[in-house]
Amino acid sequence: MKSLSDLLSAITVEEIIGSEDKEITSLECDSRKIRLGSLFVAIRGVNVDGHKFIPLVTLAGAAAIVCEEFPERLESTVTYIKVTDTSVALGFLASQWWGNPSRKLKLVGVTGTNGKTTTATLIYEMARLFGHKAGLLSTVCNYIDNEPVPATQTTPDPLTLNELLHRMVVAGCTHAAMEVSSHAAHQHRISGLHFTGAVFSNLTRDHLDYHKTVDAYLNAKKSFFDNLPKEAFALTNLDDKVGEVMLQNTLAKKYTYSLRSNADFVGRIIESRLDGTLMSFNGKEVEVLFTGKFNAYNLTAVYGASILLGWNVEDVLVNMSRLVPVAGRFQTFRSANGITAIVDYAHTPDAVVNVLNAIRDVVGNKGLIYTVVGAGGNRDKGKRPIMAREAALRSDRLILTSDNPRDEDPAEILHDMEAGLDDEARQTTLSIVDRREAIRTASMMAKPGDVILIAGKGHEDYQEIKGVKHHFDDREVVREILSALK
């Protein structure tokens, strides 16, 4: 339990009706979870306005309600607190409820279109290699030191987020890394958190079904940097066209990383293979277990963040060589007869380009590249033809297939993708709705020395069809199919 007055000390209040001298039994933003003595925060969500449920939570026994406008009917037993933005207030209240756990951790947030999961995960792994207990909040899985906690969102809601951070503190963690999605920044899920540092990877087209414009998408990510404290570090990709834009209004200490230019942290690719790369970081060579320019950017960001977290340079370089790829990110499988399959989460045009370029850089003209890719339903339709066109340009054979169709007809999604193909590309493209059959077909067509890219789902172990998640794991399917090849 917490006193209402203590909780309210964390937020800016416009007006209060009722007593602050109350004990609060729980903090909730879901009206269904209200019990006697709860503090309810009425959030204006994307689909539902929590203000509509104020009469219900009053009947359920709420002791206090935080809202942006007072209801017409006021109950004498309830305290009403008016604020400018309840979404912002919820973050600060959640932090206060859980004892401000982010201030007890060295918390690094990673934002950008591509590379968030890999970069955040590797910062977490780096902390553990240095002997620290650490936490991770990511798309693939959350971790409280070495305890996995299933992830349902890239960035959880403020209540879940602060509870997880609190559990990390209780478990003895000193460091934490987390992905910060554009949705989370825009919806203020990270308000109230204290970040030690922030990393920006890149910005390409994604989530326009939600943000509507690229500028709105950029501004959502930039708001994360804008709100950093002055003692934090802000590390950005100098090679991205908006990399420096991210630093324009931040109070944090500004740093850059690059593969092409002079920057605070410079990475260079010296030699590439499908199973690793010889790189240099600020002029010192290291063999890493990652492939591709996109991973070189991720690793350079990790190198920079590690130095800014205060770890010894030579020890950081040694640990860079010990880091391993994240599940479903450029994960490589080989058949007995020499066919290589790569499973990757690439689900944006730019990510597909990055992965295919990385494969071509290694394969050259010594083998063919087969790409199996789809696009998710109920998401930005504008990127579908772009995805297909970019994949066709960089593949010798392209197979379009289902991803997570959700509530859409998968055949219609493929039709949208096919619109991006010219007559020449159509000659080397197949459309196979069944994803397993698409992977099997690519495997049957490939010959020793060829590479199959299976893009879009990566670590996911399901396909979502008409609201139901069916078990489906690209990695399991490709292992099964490749093991049967002679």
Overview of this structure, please?
By secondary structure, the chain is of the alpha/beta class. The longest helix has 16 residues, at 293-308. The strands form five sheets. It has an eleven-stranded mixed sheet, sandwiched between helices. Strands 19-20-24-21-22-23 form a six-stranded mixed sheet, with helices on both faces. A five-stranded mixed sheet has the order 2-7-6-5-4, with helices on one face. It is built from 16 helices and 26 strands.
Radius of gyration, taken over Cα atoms and rounded to an integer in Å? 24 Å
Major beta-sheet overview: 11 strands, mixed
Shape, per Cα inertia axes: globular
Provide the helix percentage. 25-40%
Q: What oligomeric arrangement do these chains adopt?
A: single chain
Percent strand? 15-25%
Tally the helices: 16
Query: Structural class from helices and strands?
Result: alpha/beta
What is the number of E strands? Answer: 26
N-to-C CA distance: 64 Å
Arithmetic mean pLDDT:
94
| Strands side by side in the biggest sheet | 11-10-9-12-8-13-14-15-16-17-18
Poorly predicted residue ranges: 206-211
